[in-house]
Amino acid sequence: MIKLYTFPPSTNSRKVRIALIEKGLEFERINVDLTKREQKASEYLKIHPFGQIPALDDEGFIVYDSTVINEYLEDEYPYPPLMPKDSEGRARARLMEDFRDSHFNPYLVHIIQEMRKPEGERDAARIDNAKAEITKAWDRIEKELNGKEYLAGAFSLADVAFMSNIELLDRFGIAVDAAQYPNTVAWIARLKARPSFAVSAQ
């Protein structure tokens, strides 16, 4: 059976959980508690040499990095597909997943880091900057969704990546202006309605 080394609050761990659930794959969850720095334990470093999560063990083959894991799952378990068939569509999905990994998720991590601090020690300017950068991302997402239900047309790994962040938007009060970003608001509603969204929260 597939083993997933995961930490429930981690957005990148959830990104892989969503892909596994969408593909209907059974897997064993092995919790690696980041608050106890279990990811730096010598036994775990044999699995992930950089001491990060998630990591996936598929019958002895170990792969890490959430994006690489999901690409592996798509290659190894192609049905149901989570990538377009055509090269342009696949490239579009990969570009949007990279946009999430490089220009969206990191700012949510900044907010998480600040919110873990006592209220009086939080860097308000860092939080405000992170929220501003996240809000700027809606411009590109709105454009990508023009005429489409999902980022690459059909539901894909690009959408999976963003799904793992949606709950944090609500938690941190980061709104999406429905008048300015109607495509994005509808897209978020579609993502929340997928069964994998609720199931992956655990």
What would you say about this model in short?
Helices cover 53% and strands 9% of the residues. The chain is α+β, with helices and mostly antiparallel strands and 202 residues long.
Care to describe what's here?
The protein is an alpha+beta fold and 202 residues long. The protein folds into two domains: 2-76, Glutaredoxin; 87-199, Glutathione S-transferase Yfyf (Class Pi), Chain A, domain 2 (Up-down Bundle), CATH 1.20.1050.10. 53% of the residues lie in helices and 9% in strands. It is built from nine helices and four strands. It has helices at 11-22, 42-45, 66-76, 87-103, 105-115, 124-144, 157-171, 182-193, 195-199; strands at residues 2-6, 27-31, 55-58, 61-64. The protein has a four-stranded mixed beta sheet with strand order 2-1-3-4, with helices on one face. Strand 3 and strand 4 form a beta hairpin. Helix 1 packs parallel to helix 3.
Query: Looking across the biggest beta sheet, what order are the strands in?
Result: 2-1-3-4
Q: Oligomerization state of this entry?
A: single chain
Broad CATH class of the largest domain: Mainly Alpha
Major β-sheet profile: 4 strands, mixed
Number of domains: 2
Basic shape: globular
Percentage beta strand: 5-15%
**Strand runs, count:** 4
Q: Kindly, what is the distance between the CA atoms of the first and last residues, rounded to a whole number of angstroms?
A: 19 Å
